[in-house]
Every structure is written in C-alpha cells, then in structure tokens.
C-alpha cells in the first residue's frame, strides 16, 4: 500500500510539474486540486448555499451590475477572438504546431490561452447572478455541466496545450460569447427581447455550430498527420460530442418538437 501511495505521489508531480508547460505555472490556479476545488465550490454555492440564502429573500435588482459584467465579457471576448484568429487564420486548413519556447509568437499564444482560461472563471459569476435573481430555471444541468467542464478543460489547455490548434477554441468560443452577451445586454435593457424566439433560436444554432466545428478540429487532430498532440483531441472529443448532444436535445425540445406540439394543440 505504501508503495502504491508513493508512486501516486510521485506520478502526480511528474504529470503536473514535469509534463506541463512551465511557462503557465504562474496562472491563478496552477494546481489541478485548486481548479477542482473552485469548480466544486461553484456547484455547491449555486445549487445549495445560494438558493438556501435566497429562500426568504426577494430577488435582487442587479441590472447595472449585470450590464457592467456583460460589457466586460463583450470587450474581453472580442479581444481574445481577434487575437486567436490572427494565429489560426494564417493556416486555417493546416496544422498549427504547439510551441513551448519563449519565441514572441509562442508567448502570444500562451497569453491568449491564459486570458481565455480566466474568462472561464469569470463565466461562473453568471450563474451566481441567476441565483441572486432567483432565476433557478436557468441553472440547469446543461448550464452547470458546460461551465464546469469548460473551466476544467481549459485549465488542462493552458497547462499542457497552450497554443497551436488549441487556439481554435478561444477564437470560436470568444466570438460566440460576444454574441451571447450582446443578447443578454439587450434583454437587461429591454425585457421584450426575451420574447424574441427567432433570436434565441439563432443563438442556439450558433452555439451548436461552435461545438460541431471544434469537434471537427479535434477529430482532424487525432486522424491527421498534424504534429499537435493527439491527446488533446482525444480529451476534447468526448466532451464536445456530449455537449453537442445536450445542446441538440435542448434545441429539438425547445424549437422543433415544442413548435409542433403548439401547432397540434392550437
């Protein structure tokens, strides 16, 4: 038993210290235990502590806070998406190698991934706003799984794959978040936007397209001759496939089957 624990102990440091990118050791949550702790704390707060604290309280009016938060998200994600696109679009149909050197371009890619990871932590605040407004319907399994999964996966991204083909994710996800937070800002300013089924439907379609593109990129990494680590693609394929299924199920139930049901009962 002692031998097993000793090997696990040394294996842990071998993976997360020796195999990871030393340039990313300065990030806010450099340890895998710290990012797991934050993720579990987030889930406990929004599922247990928050609803219990809000049980006998009216919903908070935090419109101005939300508008400021949305503005920050729009600006940061626009910046991330544009910077990532400058690297990806140099060779959009080819292989983007992973470079752990101190070359200026490699350091710029690390910088993009670093900011992108921290935006995933910022995304968790969005769920806290739902709880403070007692909008519990929006704190769904899909919402929690997506935010938790992205936080953990992007931690692995910045620690082990900080650049190269990974930049497809901040480029596409950053753009999608810009569209999303523009919509959230519009609904905060004018509640009639919430009734725009067409806009919400298009937004879900954009999100689905995002996952399909990233899934395609991951499959290309695994089955092509690209020198980028295939492990990254293998890690992301199950996640993207599952989240695509979840969003696809939501889309069908909300905009296809629900529409047919409404027509049949009309």
UniProtKB/TrEMBL annotation:
Reactions it catalyzes: a very-long-chain acyl-CoA + malonyl-CoA + H(+) = a very-long-chain 3-oxoacyl-CoA + CO2 + CoA
Q: Which keywords fit this entry according to its UniProt record?
A: Fatty acid biosynthesis, Fatty acid metabolism, Lipid biosynthesis, Lipid metabolism, Membrane, Transferase, Transmembrane, Transmembrane helix
Question: Where is it localised?
Answer: Membrane
Transmembrane stretches, start-end: 27-45, 65-82, 110-132, 144-161, 167-186, 206-224, 230-252
Q: Which GO terms describe its cellular component?
A: endoplasmic reticulum membrane
* EC number in record: 2.3.1.199
**One of this protein's GO BP terms?**
fatty acid elongation, monounsaturated fatty acid
Chief location of this protein within or outside the cell: membrane
Matching Pfam families, A to Z?
ELO (PF01151)
Please state which protein family the record places this protein in. Answer: Belongs to the ELO family.
> Protein name, please?
Elongation of very long chain fatty acids protein
